[in-house]
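[09:14] KT: can someone run the structure on this one? pasting the chain below
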Amino acid sequence: MKKSVLFSTMAAAALVLSACGQAPEKAPATDSSSDGSGSADYSNFKACMVSDEGGFDDRSFNQSGFEGLKKAESELGVKVQTAESRSPGDYQQNIDSLINQNCNLIIGVGFLLNNAIRDSAKANPDVNFALIDSRITEGQGDTFKVLDLPNAKPLVFNTAEAGYLAGYVAAGMSESGKLGTFGGMDLPSVKIFMDGFEDGMKKYNEDNGKSVTLAGWSKESQTGQFVGNFSDTNKGKQITENMLAQGVDIVMPVAGPVGSGTVAAVKEAKKGAVVWVDSDGFKSTSDGDVMLTSVVKEIGQSVFDTVKSSAEGKYTAEAYVGTIENGGVAMAEFHDFDSKVPAELKEAVEKLKQQIVSGEIKVETKNQP
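[09:31] RB: done, structure tokens below
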């Protein structure tokens, strides 16, 4: 959930995944084995990463990717290099710099890097790439299409599933019967969180004969409130303050660092709670006391797995799709709220989780990655 070019609804619907779950390993694009025996010489492999303009300390998206890269460095012994972007104009320049530093694998964090990753992959067939949170695409409107490049791997996440669980819990925990959500930008990978959240709320209403409502988003019309970027914390705070004034008591900001504005508003109001996104907000921020739960993308693990398979000569460009079933997405623990969440609500959510894994419940959205 970060910045990107705007896609139409038709374009969003076109983002059909080529795989479900962990992508199977195919014949290697490169072989880093030192002796041909298949045992990887990790120390000769260089994994690199480019942030979007949020930077690696955004307590959300970029930070999760960075932690996965550092885990690969510490546990596998691969060499790593990063390039932090401060504006969209840095993306291509940073990737070019990493190519010149002989990186074997270059990972772009966030779909605003789509164009730079795509063009670099085409121009450098001997370098492997990965893009977090988007398929590789080109064109817009009638010319929009998804590309399958042999050296560009998408790492995408079906966050609607985890959002569904969070929406159910939030509805069950709301004292006012009013939930709220808003996005950073009007993008498929933002709206997918909100779609799942609304569906989970509706499921709670159906199961319990309630009428909890959602401010800030309508799945049916695909319209709602957006900040317009992922950096205006003050606007995020203002949107949250307006929701709290209308009686909303649990808010899910799908806006990266802008979510800190929501946290500030909830803390100042001394009421309500927050559902964080991307990372476990209880762990990634210092505001765990207001975090009911989080809709987590296991970005770090997907990065680690991609680096590991690449270093072992098993790179494949087939899409990795994070789901509840394969652990690529999850609803975080309740942490400080654990004692406040009724046992029957916990049991209901666990049952829903198993039904999603089994396929009995299918969480569907136009914004499927």
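[09:33] KT: thanks! The CA atoms of residues 114 and 299 lie 17 Å apart.
[09:34] RB: yep, looked fine to me
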